[in-house]
Amino acid sequence: MKTSQLLTAFNLTAAACMLPVLVLVGMESLAASAQPPTGRVLDRVELHALENIARRAESMMELSNVVPTRVWPHAVTDACGRQGIFISSMRPLFDEKEEQLIKVKRAWVVLGLIAAVKYAERSQLGHIAFTDADGLQGERCYYDLDIAPAREIQRDLIRGRLALEEAYDVIASHWEKVTSRHDLAIR
Hints:
Layout: H1 2-34, H2 44-61, E1 69-73, E2 83-89, H3 99-119, E3 125-131, E4 141-146, H4 147-158, H5 164-174, E5 176-179
Parallel strand pairs: 2-3
Antiparallel strand pairs: 1-2, 3-4, 4-5
Helix pairs in contact: 2-3, 3-4, 3-5, 4-5
């Protein structure tokens, strides 16, 4: 009986000591789940994976030497908790007036989508951001495209259900302009 009482006392003491730890762990997990994943800095592995996607996509974009392009990973998640890459034209892109240049730059956007989706297969890439020299200065803006419709557009292009000439309009119907005042922007 004495052993049984000693064991019960030990178990009660251990439980009493562990109770504050369990409460703290529970409170920390509740606090972590209550906070949105906004602006979480990517860890080294996540950033390295995005850098590989960006480097390969930029290499593919260099094939079209008409529009100088830079592609880089976004080092933090956006307001939706998505990882992303930026594809940037080093020349103004969206305020073009000449018909031939408009066609070239629309093709550039389509090529950017194809390159990003191609190299993002089985990755955590959640969105693609298109910007240009104007968007990198002044008002600072980009056009955000979620990866789900981007993958769908690429599949439709590959299967011939979507013509290259129509792809830009489909892309533009799915993206959203993001400025510093936008909900998706990290402040």
